């Protein structure tokens, strides 16, 4: 059933070459160097982060005598003896810290897994042994775990984020009241954790006043500035090295406590310090996707045209830092709604702070919208693919701005043809094989095209090679290779003759690798640098390869470089300047000028055992259109990973929390389930050609967070089609189908 | 981690003497023990590495089969006689863990693997199994994977394995050498115990006991099935599993053996269920009645309430398949 191999996708119209990423062989043979593998000067000491075993309370005493007595232990740092730290701003205040809570700030415990001490020793084993000998006494209060727990407090998002505006577009209530068909459903999405294979590590060492940090990061310029701010040192003296990132999915964008802890310990001991948060600590250390509740009311007229759309989201967040994803302005742009109302609340409890996780706002909100679309289509007796097509729009109905390009209907047609959707009997429970019930479901996938300012330096050498320097990040996506392809296309050089440096804050600043912005932003800056180089060579933009070769050979200097920069049309040069201070300026989705989104369509077959209610997914088809595809091979990998992620999001992934103790329980990857090979059948990906001349220099839309959006709605609809049961509470589990 | 001594005895007698020491734990594959040591759940003073002992043979024992204590799960599942005469065992083993883990895991180690209860594996949480008298966190906490049969107010953990469930259905015996050098055989279904007031004891092993092997009786006729129900297709513990050996005689159920995993502190075998089915013509009604007997005393703890209907459904699915009844 499953394919034996993934064929290399051929380049179609408006696509670059499907070349293998440069580091592919090194990665699969384990030769590639990641932040924690980088050599350090001198013998490092090893740190163990002691984390709180209670979720709420206060440390009443600390006895470190037995811990310090373990041979090799160099220090025990707690709130009683840690050096002073500066404030570190969180994202919502323009900084990079994950939490407003400073490391080892005081005796109060605000959440399960809060770091309460750092033990540093000559060996990892000694630090670990000492951690069991450190005596910390607490007084314990009753914590608030999640929705419905005693002590949970609800606020309108506006109260914690003044820039938030609820949507009031025409009269949604009246539109719904006058609709021929309506649905009113409530959905739940669970806590999820990124669980990248690479753990959260920081290695710190000082060279006089200069601090070097080896840390896997999605934003080295941001981390450099944020670490300097917290450690009260000049950002020019801080260097971040993060050559490759072993998976991030949002969890390595923010600055966590461990950065300052390792840096302080290294300064105090005068030697490098290595700190790794273990797998279970990762669950409380670097954020998660918060659980949400979503209520959707949706209506259409007798012909199936959408009328009113009313969506309310509740996000569960931390008391210390009310992180929120929001996102309802994006779902409001998806179809030709005549009236829209939306509200967003945050509910706070005694939990660690959530953070970005692959398609942060889109995963819960689009799931709810698309599940509601499927329910309404069934209510109106219209095929759900046809229902989406007939409600397509060329403008964001709320903002009234046009899409720069939108190919949802082409994606729906392509996926339907490949899947054989026309053979679907709309009746639930109409297909079975032996004891397995079979169902088909569909969903739209979307992701806003987001962009950020970027710089890049391109150097051309007389021997016909070139190099690119940009402090962007390869989080496993193939970013190095794509940057070379962008320059290769512009300079007429084979990309294999272009070397690329990334992941080092000494390089010209690039954007945060979040929000699927890297390819669009970095290639635009690289293209700009190449254009400047062509100007310096006296070449017109349409010069032939021969002309270019002749011009390079005639260069008087051995090499010629140019630094380019780029910012999206909504911003100005100040946004580029802000990059040097670690500032994040992201533009995307619907602005006052235009609506920018990539789209896809997903169709899935599920099989459900009539008796045991096990759910299996033998095949899934995804068709995606996202402007110019730089590299169909790496794009294919992103879509493939996204669809598998989506299957896991629907059927497997969920962090369980003990409601009484407000602690995560399945905090390891044996029991935090993600799909294994045996769960994945046929995954069929179609790249629908799309041209977008307006969106950015190369017409690129981000794709890393597209394919996993919507999949849970397709799967729950297929489950309904197989069984007649609507599951509105993810993940789908056996007990919900009994 | 806590420092420990590491010893590699090369004789059974020596190994037995060494494990007589308090806080000595034998180690073979280490696939479970090392994880628990890293978490400080297990804190042995000494690890007795038994891998030098010659206990990995699999060979005939009369008409039956003897599986050495150190035979790997991979070797057992692939053994020609296991595959032809005891397929329920091969299926159960292959339903567990991953290829890499099965390459390391051994017969005795697998019998002794400890529960996956979240409260047992987290030293900041209460757990009577790990720390007698500290309470049971699962009773008012996350109990989705927990027992519905034979639990106590002290502990609702399950035995997590698959191999032993098949062995229980096969009527296997565990061979144990004690500190005095005497060898005894214990029916596998009596090897694990119920938690009662001493949940810290998973099984009947005493200090100085060494498991030397498992003996399967002569093969029996009939269909052998292992059905494991879980959300993920592989590398996940059973919500419920059934090992079934069913011999049909002229349209009626003849000899039958059923064992269940994921439901209790031990592989669960209830001979009343087998007796009720024996000699009957297969029917959904009859299967339902058998399930009623099995689940008569079943008790859920909230999150795992669904295991009661799920077990009924799984048993019926297995019996339909084993008896060739068309559903």
Automatic annotation (TrEMBL), chain B:
Coiled-coil intervals, chain numbering: none
Keyword S-adenosyl-L-methionine tagged: no
Keyword flag Flavoprotein: yes
Alphabetical list of Pfam families matching this protein: CO_deh_flav_C, FAD_binding_5
Keywords: FAD, Flavoprotein
A molecular-function term among this protein's GO annotations: oxidoreductase activity
SMART domains in the cross-refs: CO_deh_flav_C
Domain FAD-binding PCMH-type stretches: 1-221
PANTHER family, sorted: ALDEHYDE OXIDOREDUCTASE FAD-BINDING SUBUNIT PAOB (PTHR42659:SF5), XANTHINE DEHYDROGENASE SUBUNIT C-RELATED (PTHR42659)
Protein name: Xanthine dehydrogenase family protein subunit M
Gene source species: Qipengyuania atrilutea
Organism taxonomic ancestry: Bacteria, Pseudomonadati, Pseudomonadota, Alphaproteobacteria, Sphingomonadales
